[in-house]
Amino acid sequence: MRRRASLVLLALAVFFGALAPVLRWYAFPRLVKIPPSQYQEMVLEAAPATLLSYDTMEAEQVDKVTIVQTLKGNVEESEKIERDAGRDVVVWDALSHVQGPDGAMVSQIPERYVFDAHTQVPVHATGESVDGDAVRREGIEFKWPFLTEKRDYEYFDAQTRTSAPIHYKGTRTFRGLEVYYFEQTIPWTKVPYPRKMPLPGIDATTLEKQTGTTRWYTTKRMFWIEPVTGAPVNGEEIHTEELRGGTLLGGRDKVTAFSGHVKIREDYLDHTVELVTANRATVLLLVSHLPWGCTALALLLLGLSLWLEARSRRPEGGPPLRSDRETVSA
User: Residue 45 forms beta bridges with which residues?
Assistant: First the structure.
């Protein structure tokens, strides 16, 4: 009976021992992914800020500029692309809506970001765009991969439509979470005008050709990334835009169009940390807790199996066997 129980325990030990690497190296890469229908809204503020008044074409100090960013999963488009790509794909329709202190629109920039649901690697497909311009992204945008590494990544900049390294700067603690801190600096670069601007009757796509006035931009981008989920728990930008030359400025060399330190609004920051903390627990279940739990259970069952096997080999009753050295007296 003990031997039979020992064999059963041994079989269970082998099963759980084999299950541990399957969960970590097979199930995790296939089961953990970004849902195609995800919707997310984030409100950021630059307070105070410098903002161009298009009525006077003068830069003014304002109390606050607000940027509302939305990411909406496009399930229909992701299913179309999946049929050709042969893998799980997410399509995010993003919108960055900038408004001044009076609530009036300053600019709007829509994006379509197509990427692999498991690895966050861009998937190049028809419709991939920024503000109506077709682009071919290289590197990540918005989100880092699951199990983010302590290294530099290529990060896509929507203003310049190019990718550049974003540098790992060390491990920090942010509101109780261990995070990786990344920085990217985009030097002064000439960029296109947003198609939607507060200039009634002016076509932004031909504004530079008509006036000779160009738009320039630089930013220092900072992210605090929770490494298990690859999700940003905080993001900031020190962002500056200028208009330079041409007839639009009335003979001036340049004027500041926008300048400010952009930060996530406090209530959205709290919500983000709570959401990332919950998602982190789910990912850790597959990547760590279950594999290590199965390994520990396998070792325990193996120990019990060996113990029962050893006991089954001992006599069940009767006196203990005498040593060869024992002597029997008359």
Answer: 66, 263
**Which tokens in the block code for residue 219?**
């930013």
Contacts of 323 (CB under 8 A, 6+ apart): none
Write down the residue that tokens 């929507």 correspond to: 158
Label residue 159 exposed, middle or buried (CB < 10 Å: 0-12, 13-18, 19+): buried
Cα–Cα dist 144/167, whole Å: 13
Q: Which helix (H) or strand (E) holds 5?
A: helix 2-22
Helix or strand holding residue 94 (H, E): strand 89-99
Dump pLDDT digits (tens) for 77-114: 999 999 888 899 999 999 999 999 999 999 999 999 99
Q: Which residues contact 272 (CB under 8 A, 6 or more apart)?
A: 42, 231, 232, 233, 234, 264
- DSSP letter for each residue of 187-242: EEEEEPPPSB-S-TT--TTSHHHHH--EEEEEEEEEEEEETTTTEEEEEEEEEEEE
Q: Cβ–Cβ contacts within 10 Å for residue 240, how many? A: 17
The H or E element that residue 264 is part of is: strand 254-264
Q: Confidence class of residue 2 from pLDDT cuts 50, 70 and 90?
A: low
User: In whole angstroms, what is the distance from residue 195 CA to residue 204 CA?
Assistant: 5
Q: What share of the chain is helix, strand, coil (3-state, %, to 5)?
A: 30, 40, 30
- The three-class DSSP label of residue 302 is helix
